[in-house]
Design brief:
single chain, mainly alpha, globular
Length: 398
């Protein structure tokens, strides 16, 4: 026997321990990795190019003049491009998740009974790698077929890149964000509280995904012939199944485990709240182009312009500009749908943060994220689109 008392343990609380064990065991039992890999391996765009892959309302620029004027074939393509755009964003988030799962696990090494948590995170990281492979396989094949080049996809990136693909950023902001990621990685790898607090932010981000992905997964669940349903819809369902357990683990670590360790210092509280506030800033915007991803639409203009000018829509430069102005600068059903999803996320985040005792008032009330509105969106788009018009037209002449 050791003379020193057994201290600094995470799992002395039997209820918390049971929650972790159940979540880990159930995730292992239903692990969708093999089904994801098999589905991605047999994907051929030709096999499902004429089908919807998501519920119809989850289509690129749904509820805008572009959608209203599109042919049925074009609507199907907009539905598929939503899938490509949405999961291209998820790839970026999951690359970061894999890294911070490991640094956060390292922050738990100093605990006496860290293994269960770390085994759970190892499984999740393995699943994230399968998700990324499936999303990239499908998205890159679709874009190669339709456009012959990348539109929403990108070459693999490091976890220190800007997580939000279309963000309100510039070179200086991007460099500062990269330094923040590096700094938090170092801090969380040697600090149990910050290691667990990372899952508060991951929980918020996963909660946003869960709100949308549950709806996306229904397309497969409600399909009359699941065996022959489109491969992308199957992958949406398998991904949602995995992420449901990831959300559970985020909640346990950020709510329950935090109560099993020493209270945070002033410095730890400060860093933790900066992380939550950063999430608010990342999720401040909402996009008329893609309901459920909080992109900064002015950063998306050139991408949408390329799509409208491609052979898929075949618009002339002035026609594409006119259509984009109608979609981005006017009040539409699509804008209201995206704003509603944004408001649902705000309210859900507030509920998620209720048990977080160290949270700043502006974080628990989602003061930053919740301050956006349809009026502010339209004012921004009208100003930014007017400035972007000349640049878009110039790109057609280059």
């Amino acid at each position: 026997m050791f003379d020193a008392p057994h201290t600094n343990t995470l799992l002395e609380n039997s209820l918390v321990c049971r929650k972790l064990q159940l979540n880990y065991q159930r995730n292992r039992k239903q692990d969708c990795t093999e089904r994801l890999d098999a589905a991605a391996a047999k994907f051929r765009y030709e096999d499902c190019k004429d089908e919807y892959w998501n519920p119809i309302e989850f289509s690129l620029l749904y509820g805008t003049p572009l959608w209203e004027q599109a042919s049925e074939i074009q609507r199907i393509l907009l539905n598929q491009l939503y899938w490509v755009a949405y999961y291209s964003q998820i790839i970026s988030a999951e690359i970061a998740t894999i890294f911070f799962n490991q640094t956060s696990a390292a922050g738990l090494y100093g605990q006496e009974d860290f293994r269960l948590v770390c085994d759970m995170l190892d499984l999740e990281s393995s699943q994230e790698r399968a998700h990324i492979n499936a999303f990239k396989t499908i998205s890159e094949q679709v874009e190669a077929h339709l456009f012959g080049k990348r539109i929403f996809t990108y070459a693999m990136r490091t976890p220190f890149a800007q997580t939000m693909i279309y963000a309100n950023t510039n070179a200086l902001k991007t460099a500062w964000k990269k330094l923040q990621f590096h700094g938090f990685g170092l801090l969380s790898a040697d600090n149990t509280f910050l290691a667990c607090q990372y899952f508060t932010v991951r929980g918020l981000r996963t909660l946003n995904g869960k709100l949308v992905q549950h709806k996306l997964s229904r397309y497969y669940q409600n399909h009359s012939d699941k065996e022959n349903s489109p491969v992308p819809s199957k992958i949406s369902y398998y991904h949602f199944m995995d992420e449901s357990f990831h959300f559970n683990s985020s909640t346990i670590l950020s709510h329950d485990i935090l109560n099993c360790i020493a209270p945070p210092t002033h410095f730890e509280r400060f860093i933790a709240n900066l992380g939550i506030k950063g999430c608010q800033k990342d999720h401040y915007h909402f996009s008329v182009a893609i309901n459920g991803i909080f992109w900064y639409d002015p950063a998306l203009y050139s991408t949408i312009y390329k799509i409208l000018r491609s052979r898929v829509f075949g618009m002339e430069p002035s026609e594409a500009i006119e259509m984009m102005e109608a979609c981005f600068t006017q009040e539409t059903e699509g804008l209201h749908r995206s704003y509603q999803t944004h408001r649902e996320a705000v309210e859900s985040y507030k509920v998620y943060l209720e048990p977080v005792g160290y949270g700043w008032k502006e974080n628990k009330e989602m003061a930053v994220m919740g301050s956006n509105s349809i009026r502010q969106y339209l004012t921004l788009q009208q100003r930014k689109f007017s400035a972007a018009r000349r640049t878009l037209l110039q790109s057609s002449q280059d």
